[in-house]
Write a structure and sequence with these properties.
Structural class: alpha/beta
Low-confidence stretches: none
Largest sheet: 5 strands, parallel
CATH superfamily: NAD(P)-binding Rossmann-like Domain
Mean pLDDT: 84
Helix content: 40-55%
Strand content: 15-25%
Number of strands: 5
Shape: globular
CATH class: Alpha Beta
Radius of gyration: 17 Å
Length: 191
């Protein structure tokens, strides 16, 4: 039996992917979601990516649910976008950055020891950060502290929300690249 853990499985492309995954033979799908509803053949655990305490609790619930087995695929798909950067999480971070990147990064780090040999990690990103496809996309800075806590007026004006989204997706892409090059990934893929 393969185990897949997924965020962002309750709407859009993620919901479609979750339905397909849940139909795969010998596959157990565990999703994290804010609103828990009854889903057949899918384990749903509470997860609010805007709260780092919830991310930690979700990871602990995954450990309990796994009962010693490993995670064969970790799909970090959830995302959010807001029109500006005025929203803050209970932890004090800008919400787009916190939900799209910071929460997933923390979840990845917490679940990394539970990944099975040859496990796959899928981090949903986009080309929204690429100036070739989006002329307003490049971040105004490359500073994680300012992404998490934007405060300068130039960072809060029109289109700041889209810049925050594109920056968070760039962070996801860089995380995926760093993970692929990490010693943990190299040792897991050679086994």
């Amino acid at each position: 039996m393969k185990t897949v853990v997924m965020t962002g499985a309750t709407a859009g492309l993620g919901e479609f992917a979750a339905q397909q995954i849940s139909r795969s033979p010998n596959t157990r799908l565990i999703i994290g979601a804010r609103g828990i509803r009854a889903l057949t053949e899918i384990t749903v655990l509470p997860l609010d990516l805007a709260r780092l305490a919830s991310v930690r609790a979700f990871a602990e619930a995954i450990f309990d649910t796994l009962n010693g087995t490993g995670i064969d695929a970790l799909v970090l798909n959830a995302g959010a976008q807001f029109p500006n950067v005025d929203q803050r999480t209970e932890d004090g971070f800008e919400t787009t950055f916190a939900v799209n990147h910071l929460a997933h990064y923390l979840l990845l780090r917490l679940l990394l020891p539970k990944l099975a040999q040859q496990a796959r990690v899928v981090i949903t990103t986009s080309d929204a950060h690429d100036p070739k496809t989006n002329p307003i996309a490049p971040p105004l800075h490359a500073d994680a502290e300012r992404l998490a806590h934007p405060g300068h007026e130039s960072e809060r004006r029109f289109m700041a929300g889209f810049r925050a989204y594109s920056s968070s997706k760039l962070c996801n892409l860089l995380t995926a690249r760093a993970l692929a090059a990490s010693p943990e990934a190299k040792s897991a893929s050679s086994a």
